Amino acid sequence: MPLLYSKQLNPHTRLGIWELAEPAEELRAALPAHVAVEAGLEQVHPKRQREWLASRALAYRLLQEFSAHPLQLLRNQHGKPYFPDAGLQVSISHSPKLAAVILSDKYEVGIDIELISAKALRVQDKFLTDAEKSHTLADEQNTCLYWSAKETLYKLYSRKQLIFKDNLEVKPAPDPNLLLGRVKTENFSKLYRINFELLQSHVLTYCIDDSAA
């Protein structure tokens, strides 16, 4: 099974990347026996089926580092994945070629992976402010990176609908492979550190909210 890598980010948090190389049947077989496949999965495009199955296979692979119990990965009312009664935080992302999962037994987490393409440039006015454009400079990779960073913030917050251009801010950080991101709503404002990597023509962004540690 093409697990590209799994790494410990801190004593409580682990990240994994999976390359989608197997057919759907092999990915189903990689799931634990107790796992229920999402209703309606058979009706979606085969490519999307493989992305869903690979991301879940990876999530359960990482779960082995935290628990031996037969947990079921569900989604809450906001669509955020979670393991009921496990005290674990999980975030999932996938593209047609890669799946990414981050799992923590202490911190809230968010993750996103995006194939670098011109699509983000075409819609940048919908999610970037003028200040953010002064950093991305209409560069394809930078624009995808800021889009991915905002996706990660969206998943990390995961408590209400957010408007990417109005409620999420991203800017450079002084450290390499790091961005600063802020979630701001009428009653909430918080700054986060967003890590990023480039791999296989993708940008990967992830955030660990350890500010209360």
Please write out the topology.
Blueprint lengths: L2 E8 L2 E7 L4 H7 L15 H18 L10 E2 L5 E2 L6 E6 L3 E7 L3 E8 L3 H4 L1 H4 L2 H7 L3 H18 L6 H4 E5 L5 E8 L2 E12 L2 E8 L4
Antiparallel strand pairs: 1-2, 2-6, 3-4, 5-6, 7-11, 8-9, 9-10, 10-11
Helix pairs in contact: 1-2, 5-6
In which range does the helix fraction lie?
A: 25-40%
Number of domains: 2
Spatially, the strands of the biggest sheet line up as: 7-11-10-9-8
Strand residue content: 25-35%
The CATH homologous superfamily of the largest domain is termed 4'-phosphopantetheinyl transferase domain
For the record, the CATH architecture of the largest domain stands as: Alpha-Beta Complex
CATH fold title of the largest domain: Ribosomal Protein L22, Chain A
Rg (C-alpha, Å): 17 Å
Low-confidence stretches: none
Mean pLDDT: 92
Order of helix and strand elements from N to C terminus: EEHHEEEEEHHHHHEEEE
Distance between the termini: 35 Å
Largest sheet entry = 5 strands, antiparallel
Structural class: alpha+beta
- Tell me, briefly, the overall form: globular
